[in-house]
Amino acid sequence: MFRKLFSLVIIMLFMFSCSKNDGGTAPSAPSASPTATLTAEWKQIASKTITGRIFHTDLKLLSGLPYVAITESTDVGVITSHISVLKTVGNSLEYLGSPKFVTSTHSGATLNFLNYSPCIAYTEEEESLDYGASFRVYTGIGASGWEFLGSRAYDNYDQDIDMFVYNNIPYMTYKDFNNGNKLTVKKYVAAGTTGWESVGSPGFSSEVGLSSTNKIWVQNGIEYVAYTDVNNKIKVMQHSWIGSTGWTYISDGMPEHNGCMKDIAIDNGIFYVAYKDYDNLNKISVLKCQNGLWSFLGSSGFSNGEVQFVNITASNNDIFVAYTDESENYKVLVKKYKGAEITGWESVGETSLNYEGSNVSMESSDGYLFLTFTNNTEVSGCDEIRIFKFE
Fold this sequence. Notes:
Blueprint: H1 8-15, E1 42-51, E2 53-62, E3 65-73, E4 81-89, E5 92-95, E6 102-105, E7 110-114, E8 117-127, E9 130-138, E10 146-148, E11 158-166, E12 169-176, E13 182-188, E14 196-198, E15 215-219, E16 222-228, E17 234-239, E18 247-249, E19 259-267, E20 270-277, E21 283-290, E22 293-296, E23 307-315, E24 318-325, E25 331-337, E26 345-347, E27 358-365, E28 368-376, E29 382-390
Antiparallel strand pairs: 1-29, 2-3, 3-4, 4-5, 4-6, 7-8, 8-9, 9-10, 11-12, 12-13, 13-14, 15-16, 16-17, 17-18, 19-20, 20-21, 21-22, 23-24, 24-25, 25-26, 27-28, 28-29
């Protein structure tokens, strides 16, 4: 059983954490919104060839420096996979700690920063056929360089994990097998048997769908989650301390589209949901919630074809989405909401980003966009991961 708590030094750092940081990345000087002119170009800043097949990436920035967590399998079709974290060094990517330091996972790792140190949330096998939510922080200590924060948040096959760090407090949400495949949210309190406690009741949501991408966000001390239920309806909830579960739906009034929620963003109190729209030929749609009223941002189903690997980021009222489009041979595309186009969205540097890809992840910092994705190489059994910057 993984019941190893952090050293006294790490706990002291947690208890005396630094100032508020909504996104979990290191604070920096106030930055311009990511509005580098649309005539700028995407420039590759780092790449690495990985032996194996990557099926998930998560890009985050620490003081403008890209880090990326990758989840990979050494064999195509193998369910059990490995996790590594890479950081940019010059124009290359280097492992942070040991490569493949997580050797048995069923979920894609999500990445963030705690006290300026990279941290990941994922599921890890503890006993035969028994997977649970786990959280590690890079300390440089031990064989892998990664240590557990508390013990596993919950036992018995927790799936589809997402993580957020607010005020240097980590939160996790996941589909909880022990509670009817509903969502559970945990936050780290450095107390009790595991170090983690539930936010509201465990299993507070309706049943989560098989294809759901579950997301958590914390703003102004309020926790939000988004997911897709078993009826392909997108649901958004906030922790309200009301009722038997302590959570309430804020997705009432949302257009009744069938779809699969992929990513969320909150900017200046406005909630954005990007999803694959089943009612629009699996194209991308973005919903906006302002003052409790839901509406489409631009046209619904504004991509040319069916989308995969959808990301959304919002900063200072600038909203960007990234995805791959089946009708364009799975080319990686980035769009910005402008409101003036036929769909309301226009391409960002399309001529300088001419790659087919998958496993897309996007972030913004200091007025710049950063993008990572993977594509197959000419070498059998290998994938290449690339990081681009729009400037």
